Amino acid sequence: xxxxxxxxxxxxxxxxxxxxxxxxxxxxxxxxxxxxxxxxxxxxxxxxxxxxxxxxxxxxxxxxxxxxxxxxxxxxxxxxxxxxxxxxxxxxxxxxxxxxxxxxxxxxxxxxxxxxxxxxxxxxxxxxxxxxxxxxxxxxxxxxxxxxxxxxxxxxxxxxxxxxxxxxxxxxxxxxxxxxxxxxxxxxxxxxxxxxxxxxxxxxxxxxxxxxxxxxxxxxxxxxxxxxxxxxxxxxxxxxxxxxxxxxxxxxxxxxxxxxxxxxxxxxxxxxxxxxxxxxxxxxxxxxxxxxxxxxxxxxxxxxxxxxxxxxxxxxxxxxxxxxxxxxxxxxxxxxxxxxxxxxxxxxxxxxxxxxxxxxxxxxxxxxxxxxxxxxxxxxxxxxxxxxxxxxxxxxxxxxxxxxxxxxxxxxxxxxxxxxxxxxxxxxxxxxxxxxxxxxxxxxxxxxxxxxxxxxxxxxxxxxxxxxxxxxxxxxxxxxxxxxxxxxxxxxxxxxxxxxxxx
Length: 503
Known about the structure:
Blueprint: E1 9-17, E2 20-25, E3 29-34, E4 38-39, E5 48-54, E6 57-63, H1 64-67, E7 79-83, E8 90-93, E9 95-103, E10 122-128, E11 131-136, H2 138-145, H3 147-151, E12 177-185, E13 188-193, E14 197-202, E15 217-223, E16 226-232, H4 233-236, E17 250-256, E18 259-265, E19 267-275, E20 279-281, H5 284-289, E21 296-301, E22 308-312, H6 320-333, E23 347-354, E24 357-362, E25 366-371, E26 386-392, E27 395-401, H7 402-405, E28 418-423, E29 428-433, E30 435-442, E31 447-448, H8 455-460, E32 461-467, E33 472-477, H9 485-502
Parallel strand pairs: 2-11, 6-8, 13-22, 16-18, 24-33, 27-29
Antiparallel strand pairs: 1-2, 1-9, 3-7, 4-5, 5-6, 7-8, 10-11, 12-13, 12-19, 14-17, 15-16, 17-18, 20-21, 21-22, 23-24, 23-30, 25-28, 26-27, 28-29, 31-32, 32-33
């Protein structure tokens, strides 16, 4: 504990946890604020409320009640004390009473006279007009609860493309398979190659109108400080443009001819593999009728039913003069560095929801996104997280209920639920999630390190994407760590038994 210049008096922040009074030396407190909303970290200790945004940075929010073994606060009205020393952390408390100055001779440090209660670790105690305040040894409590923090309070990890996610070497795509992003226009399914799609985001409620543009230009929207022209895919494909929207529209962000364009689609459908042997060029008679300028580059014939998905040719969606005007207008609206700054997006993530929390998986490990099958065959004597197995295009696929895997309450079936088929170097499994929200592309510099608190969290969560302007915190998961080692062994055994039965 530090003292003031005279060495005899110290300042303390007095705070309350339930009916108990505690104190921190004032020089260990950076600020006090209302407890912010926090993104829940799966499989974290009970004391970790989650990861919160603080003016563009992320820090763990820890419950003082849980650290001390007290029941949770049901009032929902709490404060956070941000600690100034050690690894950045905010402590959620019931209230902050006052700031006091105390003489050093008034502080008792004899452990036998401090009246230590269960869960407490104390440095001392002193009397105030509010009652006896105990000086909490918060560093010892944190180190005891979060073992990883004691090992590496000041370490940070490289979250670059090659090391932070560690998946590129594990997940080489099959040479005869492409990945396409599909969406719905006027009840029909269309697609773009994944390499042409930068991301998919919800359509904004309003768009900024633009003057002297094509009627198909719906307006401008702001996407991470960049102005993005948004055009109607319905109109571009010759369908009527509705006067009203239903709130389910998505904007497919693509780079076309060097310009970032938002394409308004009625619905986002799926991310799926497309066997190249089933991708056929547009029939010559159709190309001849459109003078070789068809907006459809190829047609994909799906398995088991032969449904056709039209794969669009991005460069043929617009006339060259329209693209030039859009690029010019976009630069006119931009100012400062944004006028010339190139968008660098070398990492892509599929974002999904569990409850109110958002998680991201590297797009390289996602084989496809589909609706949850109505029938899933249960497997006897397996853990509750294994929902069962399905037959996916001739292959037996284990299905994991990701809510149960993260110890969350089971959700009744809904239309928004999706099955994310994930493939790592050892396993291929379907993950049931509440919904899939979008595809985000970003660069490595935009990804923050995960607070070093627990070893399990450090393995599972490999980075944090903090979209402060959107009020979103996305935890980026390592696919190889979605299952514990015991559960990975179970799936290994399951795969061997499946191969044996098929042979």
